[in-house]
């Protein structure tokens, strides 16, 4: 195919025009397809730079300010098929080089939620019904858009939605209903996956206002476990309220009552549960239900019928040593339908056969019995105890415990005698005294020592001896010297000396004898 230099030169001459057009505002998008189609025709022979040729050809044809002196461009012949096929891949090549975005993961499957749960009537009156429910247990990845509340009259299946928009909360008031109609109500959860299975009320609801809702007034003492013994009588009165008169039903452990054992007497205000003679089988959970139309109230009370327990299953002697016996026993098979509070252990001497309590209210299953009499043979028995009292029978040990006699070799302990020997020591010394002529006086002191010390009294270091003027006494370590009617010359220094084989001690004092005063009147008469 011959080359076409003329169009190439023209494109080169028109480069200034191209620069001006780049500065000018962009042309309208409508004429762009024509130069794009022409570009491949001119770019096919120019293999060196196909892209610039394509870009230059477009503004050349679109430029309105081309010089009129130039010759008009001859019409371009249609390009051959080969050139068109080669130009198309050339134009698509830049697009293939651009990076592709990662393919997003497929969206999760849209599934509806599970059905709402716990649908019930909260309130109603003559024209409306208020319902409540809980959200579905399985919501799914698509979430929950809301709920649709649907109703239909009893006896038909013409379900109609009562809410135009999806209900977000789990409470809805169905308004503008006709008094006396019976409505069937259900709730459907909605999400992107569609509608869930419906949750419907078990029975149709009568649109009618309740004058007084039913209420059970369970007494306080019945709110806890009611415990009584086997053979006693039960007469429990449980009041209630409600208008019109509620329908009262009783169940025991979820089953209907046995009318042969339990009597129920109902009135407008209360219900009486009566059992003439209780048995263990009467124990259980009793439920009272009062119902007015679609509203009801329930109360439960627990009866526990107890009796004396059985004896321990077994008791045996584990060991015997000295004056002690170790016992062990197992709990009773029959606890009397209540907890075991403890055990009572008794012993009996084989000689007398009398039983005596050893342990009472004992909580363990083993014990050690001490202080048994040497040479005696003992048996033991154990009673079980619960809140009704001790078991009627006891478990008795099969074997006997023999407390053997043992020879006792008594050796009295040897004590080291204390040495009480001590040299004489005066614990109370003599005190200086003053007396009057003719008035007897005493000097006192105390002394201790072991063996008993010998005491001597002295005056001015002279032993008094047996002078009758002086009376010397020493009893229990108390030493006294009595001076009878002293004269002017009996004054001086008196001392007491105590002596034994371990030593001696001495104490002294000064005695002053004064002259009696003579009245002045007597002197003048003389």
Structure described in brief:
With 526 residues, the protein is mostly beta strands. The strands form eight sheets. Strands 3, 4, 6, 7, 8 and 9 form a six-stranded antiparallel sheet that branches. Strands 21, 22, 24, 25, 26 and 27 form a six-stranded antiparallel sheet that branches. It is elongated, with a radius of gyration of 64 Å.
Report on this structure:
This protein is mostly beta strands and 526 residues long. The chain is built from 6 helices and 36 strands. Strands 3, 4, 6, 7, 8 and 9 form a 6-stranded antiparallel sheet that branches. Strands 21, 22, 24, 25, 26 and 27 form a 6-stranded antiparallel sheet that branches.
Indicate the structural class: mainly beta
Tell me the Rg in angstroms.
Answer: 64 Å
Q: Return the CATH class of the domain at 212-306.
A: Mainly Beta
Q: What would the principal axes of the Cα set say about the shape? A: elongated
State the helix count.
Answer: 6
Major sheet: 6 strands, antiparallel
């Amino acid at each position: 195919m011959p080359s076409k230099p003329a169009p190439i030169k023209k494109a080169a001459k028109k480069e200034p025009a191209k620069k001006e057009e780049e500065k000018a505002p962009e042309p309208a998008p409508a004429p762009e397809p024509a130069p794009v189609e022409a570009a491949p025709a001119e770019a096919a022979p120019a293999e060196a730079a196909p892209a610039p040729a394509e870009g230059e050809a477009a503004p050349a044809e679109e430029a309105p300010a081309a010089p009129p002196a130039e010759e008009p461009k001859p019409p371009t012949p249609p390009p051959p098929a080969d050139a068109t096929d080669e130009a198309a891949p050339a134009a698509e090549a830049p697009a293939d080089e651009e990076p592709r975005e990662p393919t997003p993961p497929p969206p999760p499957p849209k599934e509806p939620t599970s059905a709402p749960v716990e649908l019930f009537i909260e309130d109603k009156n003559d024209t409306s019904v208020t319902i409540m429910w809980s959200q579905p247990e399985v919501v799914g990845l698509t979430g929950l858009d809301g709920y649709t509340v649907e109703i239909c009259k009893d006896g038909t299946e013409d379900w109609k939605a009562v809410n135009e928009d999806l209900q977000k909360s789990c409470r809805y008031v169905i308004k503008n209903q006709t008094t006396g109609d019976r409505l069937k109500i259900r709730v459907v959860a909605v999400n992107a996956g569609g509608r869930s299975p419906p949750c419907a009320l078990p029975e149709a609801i009568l649109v009618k206002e309740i004058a007084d809702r039913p209420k059970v007034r369970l007494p306080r003492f019945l709110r806890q476990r009611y415990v009584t013994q086997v053979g006693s009588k039960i007469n429990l009165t449980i009041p209630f309220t409600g208008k019109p008169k509620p329908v009262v039903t009783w169940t025991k452990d979820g089953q209907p009552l046995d009318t042969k054992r339990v009597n129920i007497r109902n009135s407008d205000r209360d219900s009486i549960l009566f059992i003439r003679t209780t048995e263990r089988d009467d124990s259980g959970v009793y439920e009272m239900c009062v119902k007015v139309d679609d509203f009801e109230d329930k109360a439960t009370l627990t009866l526990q019928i107890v009796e004396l327990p059985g004896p321990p299953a077994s008791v045996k002697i584990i060991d015997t040593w000295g004056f002690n016996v170790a016992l062990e026993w197992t709990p009773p098979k029959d606890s009397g339908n209540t907890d075991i509070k403890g055990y009572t252990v008794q012993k009996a001497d084989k000689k007398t056969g009398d039983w005596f309590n050893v342990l009472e209210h004992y909580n363990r299953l083993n014990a050690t019995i001490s202080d048994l009499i040497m040479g005696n043979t003992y048996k033991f028995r154990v009673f079980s105890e619960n809140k009704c009292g001790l078991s009627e029978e006891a478990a008795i040990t099969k074997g006997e415990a023999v407390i053997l006699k043992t020879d006792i070799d008594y050796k009295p302990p040897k004590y080291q005698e204390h040495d009480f020997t001590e040299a004489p020591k005066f614990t109370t010394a003599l005190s200086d005294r003053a007396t009057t002529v003719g008035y007897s006086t005493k000097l006192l002191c105390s002394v201790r020592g072991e063996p008993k010390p010998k005491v001597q009294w002295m005056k001015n270091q002279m032993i008094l001896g047996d002078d009758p003027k002086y009376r010397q006494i020493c009893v229990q370590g108390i030493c006294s010297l009595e001076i009878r009617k002293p004269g002017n010359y009996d004054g001086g220094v008196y001392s007491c000396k105590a002596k034994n084989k371990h030593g001696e001690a001495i104490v002294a004092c000064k005695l002053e004898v004064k002259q009696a005063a003579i009245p002045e009147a007597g002197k003048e008469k003389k």
